[in-house]
Structure formats: structure tokens, C-alpha cells
Hints:
alpha/beta
Amino acid sequence: xxxxxxxxxxxxxxxxxxxxxxxxxxxxxxxxxxxxxxxxxxxxxxxxxxxxxxxxxxxxxxxxxxxxxxxxxxxxxxxxxxxxxxxxxxxxxxxxxxxxxxxxxxxxxxxxxxxxxxxxxxxxxxxxxxxxxxxxxxxxxxxxxxxxxxxxxxxxxxxxxxxxxxxxxxxxxxxxxxxxxxxxxxxxxxxxxxxxxxxxxxxxxxxxxxxxxxxxxxxxxxxxxxxxxxxxxxxxxxxxxxxxxxxxxxxxxxxxxxxxxxxxxxxxxxxxxxxxxxxxxxxxxxxxxxxxxxxxxxxxxxxxxxxxxxxxxxxxxxxxxxxxxxxxxxxxxxxxxxxxxxxxxxxxxxxxxxxxxxxxxxxxxxxxxxxxxxxxxxxxxxxxxxxxxxxxxxxxxxxxxxxxxxxxxxxxxxxxxxxxxxxxxxxxxxxxxxxxxxxxxxxxxxxxxxxxxxxxxxxxxxxxxxxxxxxxxxxxxxxxxxxxxxxxxxxxxxxxxxxxxxxxxxxxxxxxxxxxxxxxxxxxxxxxxxxxxxxxxxxxxxxxxxxxxxxxxxxxxxxxxxxxxxxxxxxxxxxxxxxxxxxxxxxxxxxxxxxxxxxxxxxxxxxxxxxxxxxxxxxxxxxxxxxxxxxxxxxxxxxxxxxxxxxxxxxxxxxxxxxxxxxxxxxxxxxxxxxxxxxxxxxxxxxxxxxxxxxxxxxxxxxxxxxxxxxxxxxxxxxxxxxxxxxxxxxxxxxxxxxxxxxxxxxxxxxxxxxxxxxxxxxxxxxx
Length: 768
Ligand code: ADP
């Protein structure tokens, strides 16, 4: 048993067969000084307290290492440095406290020779080898020393000294007297460290990869910038922000909009260049800065000038032009207050859109033009919210931006072709747009700020008045345009379409001349339309061919287009024009229809064969038309005596009614008298003239009721070569609208009862 002075070391360990260096203050560290003074053989016990904050003996371990001073030297600042070598690990029997210096009574630890130790020596040696290989900064100097060591105890201490572990770990190695347990702890610690290092390595690699990728991107971006700079189109974010701010300073709009744009520019500035949001903000700013918030054109108010412009662009249409002028006059007088919206209604190609364009030109306004045909989503009108991917403003704002003024003539085409479904009702959104009470504060979902539409002059167009959504119709001032007669078309062609087309093709009136007959041939045999769109196209295609001829054949200087050479240019006639050799047929009678091409005749065919009185209807007839057929048949059955039809024939046969062309949908009650006439013709075997056409609803009692679209129907029938037209007396007033040159060629028979129809067809026949 020995007694040794204790030096408490709280931050490093002394292993047997190694050294530590301690520096102490010559005045303050009295405990060390006294130990060194009292002890002649320079031995002491190095003890590591169990807890960091040493307080009393109970927190001292019962194992320490005996050390011996190897070197002692004075260093500046009144300090002394000692180097202590570790001799052996010992048990501490007891600590003795003498005025805050401690002494310990120590005892040697007996060495137990254990067979297992051999195995652990090998394992430990392997582990340290593995550890050195895995840890890049470990020197392998220790490996050469391993072979000189025989006991596990010593090996553990050697390795313990060598390992770059923390004080806390090493302290455990000192305190543990069983070398096998100590070896196990060291191995476990080394393995953990290896794992940790691997993890670290992985993370480092990952980070490195990320860094190198972002460096790559940065490099590429820099390169793009350099290239752009070289090309002179530098577009860095800074430049862009400067540009946006400049544009804002030049923008004419109210303060609220300015503030909003300013806010968005700041957002743009503070958003990371790589953020996808940047593009979205940029797009929004683009819209805001390009909208004509406060841009207006000044109207031409001289209505004579306006009329002159309209006359220059459109032939005829006197009523229409008059109504437009009246409308403009009222608008001027009331300063835009609640004037209704113009709506031009009529078949295709009669000049609705072009007239609206001409109105814009005549009062010096820009034009916005959209079509709402087929729209079923209200977002198309009022935009998508910005949170929606790929959001855009609606068509109204898009149109305004294109027009680039806040008071354009805004043409809304096909207002009768919107549909309504789950995505909402575009008609009601359009109503908000058109309503002068609301549209000064029009708010598009994308733009979010209010845009004043109250100075816009809206003009809608439609083909069918009844298909315009009801709530909209209420707001509209309907102006009806109708089909042109052949002679109107001739005039339009001569005075408007041909001169315009010649100019567009770089030709003069001297180079190409059209005879009237040639133009009529174009109208009658190459087109079938209410308006003049097809005719216009045809003239263009004719002129293209002529330009080519003039350029390739220098012998030709001028061209005369007449009936004879038209076929050479345009190929075979496309439509038959009945200038009618009349013929008679049993069971076929011409009805009159109002189709997308304007008016036309609609032959109705009937036949019968053995059966049981069934009625078969074909030709895509709508429900109302089918009912009409049944009413006509019932009427004939109940009046068979009058019409001299054997009732048995009606009972013992099936009757088939067909209305060509089968694929075109037809509906409406106006074929009533035609159906009845075809049936009577069939059962009485009396033929009907092919140049007669008729229209009128029939009731069970044989009354003939008013029908719609008469003007179009009559013009269409005249075009088809009809000479005699039977129509309801109730429609008499409509005849006033029919152009004189058409009326002059037609014989009208007005009826209020079917018997009058019967008489005029069949009894005239009998007499004649
Ligand atoms: P819509 O809008 O009714 O379908 P457009 O306005 O597109 O018809 O007219 C088709 C073409 O016919 C245009 O080139 C137009 O100039 C011409 N057009 C139609 N009506 C007339 C007219 N009365 N006078 C001169 N050109 C006309």
C-alpha cells in the first residue's frame, strides 16, 4: 500500500506508457506545487474526476494512473510546465483530504491471465487496422508497434492513447480495469466512428454534388448573360426591373393601379431568379403595363362623314345604316348614358362584321373583336384567377389590350352560339360586361383591378335572334340584316367586291372586266348563300388565275370575263339555277326553309304502299315538324270527302313522308300546308307544279297561321326559280320588306284557310 499526492486532471487522460503535459500557475495552483515539493521521488497519482464539475471526493473514481515527472521547466508569466509519464493503472483504496489537496491510498491491480485475451488482441489489432484504413487522416505509425505488445491490457492503452477520441471516451478506458471489457468498448467506439465517418462522407458527397450542380447552373447562366451582352440584348433581372419601373412611370392610369403595379414590381425584385413564380409575376406585370387604362381616341361626331364612310364600305343596307346613325346620334346626345348595345342579326356573309368594322372606322375608333361562339366557360369571358396554372385574362381584357384604347368598338361575334354548362354561364358574365351600370367597374379575375369598360362601344352579331340568350336580348338593340337578292349581289359585286379585289390583286379595271351576265352566272351557278362571302372568295380566286395568266402570257393585255369563259376558270357549274322549265309531279311539293345559307326551297316527298295506315317520317325532322305532319294527315282524314279521297286508301296503306336532304336537321311548323298538299296530290293523283312553293302552319281545323323568316324564304325561293308562292294572310305585312325586283317576278297567294290553298293548286289545275 502506498500513499500518493493526487493531481486532478479534468480534461485529459494519462495512459500507462504514455505522457501528458501540464502547465500550472506558480502562485495559484498550490495543490500541485505542494505535491511536487513533498514528494521526493516525483511520483503522483493522476485522477480524472467522474463529473465535469468536481465538488467532493464522492465524484472521484477508484482508479487512477501513477505518473512520474519526466521534465519540469519554467515558462514565462510565472508558470511551470511539467511532462508526466504514465507508469501503471492502480486501485484507489481511499482519498484523504488535506486542506483541499488530496492524497490517495493506492493498491496494484493484479494481472489475471485470461485465454480470451489472445483472441481480443487479434480482434483489436484488426479493428485498429480497419479504422486506420477508413479514416483518411489517421497515421499508420501505430501498426509497427502492435507486434511488440503482448498483453491486451497494454494494447488497449496503446490504442487508447493513439485514437483521436474525446476526453469522455478516453476516461472510460482509464477507469475500466478489465482489459477485455476495455477492448470491447474501444472496438465499439471505433466502429461507431467509422459509421459516422461514412455518413459524413456521404453527406459531404451529396453536398458537393449539389454545390457543383448549382455552380454549373450559375456558370451556364453567366455564360448566357455574357452571350446576351455580346449580342446586345442584355435582359438581366436588374435591367428588367429598371425597365418595368420606367414603363410604370410612363403609364397613364389612376393611383390605385400604379400602387398595385409598384407592389408587384417589388415582389418581382425580391423573388429569386430561379423561382418559377418569377415568370408568373412578369406575365402579370406585362398585362398591367400594357392595358390602355387611360387611352382614348376622339370620336368623329359629324354624322354626315360617318354616313359617307359607311356608304363607301357597304352597298345598300339603307335601313340598317339609318338605324346606326340614329343610334350614334342618341349616343352623342346622352353622352353614353345607358344606351343599349347594338346587335346585328342576319345570315352569314351579309356584312354584319364588316359593317361593325366600318362603324369603328367611321367614328375613328380602334377595334377589338372576339367571338364567343362555342364558349361554355365563364372564365373565357372574365378570366382565370392567378392561382390557376396557366391563368390568363378573359377575352374581354384580351380584346381591349389588342385594341390598345379604352374606348374601342368591341365586336362580339356569334353571341347566339354560347352554351351553358357546369363551368358556368358565359351569357351572364357577358351581361355584366355589357351592362352600362356595372361595366365601369369591370373586374377580370386575372387582372384583379377594375377596368372601366363604360366608354367601349359594344356591337354584337348573331345569325338567329331566337338563339340569343334571353337575358342578353333584353339589352340589345337588334338590327336585322337579311339575304341579298341576286340583283343586290350583282350591285355589290360590281361596285364593291370587284373593285376591292382588283386592287388587292394589283389589277386595274382596264385589265379585267366582268360582264353583268358573267357576274350573275357566278351568283346563280357557283354560289348558294344569303350573303356575298362565297362570291367574294370566288372573285378572288378568279383574279388569282388571271394574274397568273397575265404574268405568264405576254400576248394578253386585258381580260374580258363573260358567260362563256367563266367555266374555263372555275370549272363546272356547282349549282343548278332553275330558270324554270316547269314540270309537274305527284306527291312532291316545295316548302320553304330558312337555313344557315339564308332562304331556300325544301321539296317534300310522300309516297304510300300496302299497310295499315301507319305514318313513316324520314329526313331528320324535328319534333314540331313531325307533329305538323300528323296534324296535316289528320286534317285530310277528317276532310276526305271534301278532297275526294277514299278513306279506305288511307286506312289500308302506310304513308311515308321524306324531306331531303336527309342529313340536314329541319324543324318548325311552317311546312304544315306543304305536307297537306303533298298528301292530297298523292292520294288524288293530281300533279303539282314545280315552280310553286308554299309556307304556313296548319291547324286541325285547316286554319293557316303566320310563320317567321318570310323575307329570307321568299328571296331564297326566287333564287330557286319559284314563280308562285302561297303564304299565310297573317304574314301580309312582311311583303313590304321584299325588294321590288323580286316581288315583280312572283305571284303571291295569301291564304287564311287550307281550302284556299287547295283551290289555288288543284282547282286551277282542273280548270287550266
Ligand atoms: P357576316 O359578318 O354577316 O357573316 P361579313 O361582314 O364577314 O359577313 O361580310 C362578308 C363579306 O361580304 C365582307 O367582305 C363584306 O365586305 C362583304 N359584304 C357584305 N355585305 C356587303 C355590302 N352590303 N356591301 C359591300 N360588301 C359587303
